[in-house]
Amino acid sequence: MRTLIILAALLAAVPAQAQLVIAHRGASGERPEHTLAAYERAIDAGADFIEPDLVVTKDLVLVARHENELSDTTDVASREEFAARRKTAEIDGQLITGWFAEDFTLAELRTLRAKERLPGLRRANARYDGLYQVPTFAEIVSLVRAKSAESGRTVGLYPELKHPTFLLQQGIDSVDLFVSALKKEGLDGKAIPLFVQCFEVAPLQRLDRLTDLRLVQLVAAEGGPADEPAVSYAEMLSLSGLARVKEYADAIGASASLVVGVDGKPTALVATAKAAGLPVHAWTLRKENAYLPPALRNGTDEAATGNYAAAWTLLAAAGVEAIFTDDPALATALRRSASR
């Protein structure tokens, strides 16, 4: 009850602000993630940026998947012709068994179909299983340009490089491939509506030397960057740690749990980051009870929609400049309401 009273007071005191809306993997609360349909849905909802996670095929094409392991988001496990591709790999210190994007050519990957990653929570999304292919980064850029022209507003890109150190160990330089793709598309410079994010450090440092893009150091509540095993994210979020991050990055992408405590009060992160000259972008706001703190849940069904508006407002009140969300339509509606 005390937590509910604190939350109510905070929500009454601080209106939702005009934070940037980042469509996390597209409108992934409405369509299977990382499909052109999810990205288009997000753009139509008014998202400022769409976020493709980028992995690489065997023939060195950048494609969008949340992980390089494919079985959670495609039908690869049911495809007998690819049964022999199943293997176990150590990725960032974890043993993962499945099918990996870097073992498939783009042509082979095109034969797969996307599916909902969370069918237990997003049963409606599972209706779209089998309809969509895995998109390439070039196709996503084309979609964004077409939708920007159609809508008359600028839509940005916010790609994340997934497991670049692991891929480099496999002989695949995803940073170099990404830079080449950007140059081919004419996407370089701080004036371009594009952020690049990564949980690792060295890839961002390389990008800082190779491009003029805005770079975002991702941090989680636990662990540390895979390419810096002696460093924890907690250490990186100290004032001295953030000063080092500022040498190569332009913002921090932080788990929402690092921004707002379980009591609904802002932590010190935003203030500390701002003191170091780094804005904070918070991830990831979702509408389902399973992803909301107990005080903001609606009943006991994990798939039910909780108090999304309250969660948005708490993050806004903490002073973040952007919020990643699976539900950009809800976020943009809240922003419009606040502006009125």
UniProtKB/TrEMBL annotation:
Claim: Transferase is one of the keywords in the record: no
- Which reaction is catalysed here? a sn-glycero-3-phosphodiester + H2O = an alcohol + sn-glycerol 3-phosphate + H(+)
Q: Which Pfam families match?
A: GDPD
InterPro entries membership: GP_PDE_dom, PLC-like_Pdiesterase_TIM-brl
* Top-level EC class: hydrolase
Keywords of this entry:
Glycerol metabolism, Hydrolase, Signal
Q: What is the superkingdom listed in this entry's lineage?
A: Bacteria
Q: Which Gene3D superfamilies does this chain map to?
A: Phosphatidylinositol (PI) phosphodiesterase
Q: Where is the GP-PDE domain?
A: 19-335
Q: To which protein family does this belong?
A: Belongs to the glycerophosphoryl diester phosphodiesterase family.
Q: This protein is called what? A: glycerophosphodiester phosphodiesterase
**Native organism taxonomy:** Bacteria, Pseudomonadati, Pseudomonadota, Alphaproteobacteria, Sphingomonadales
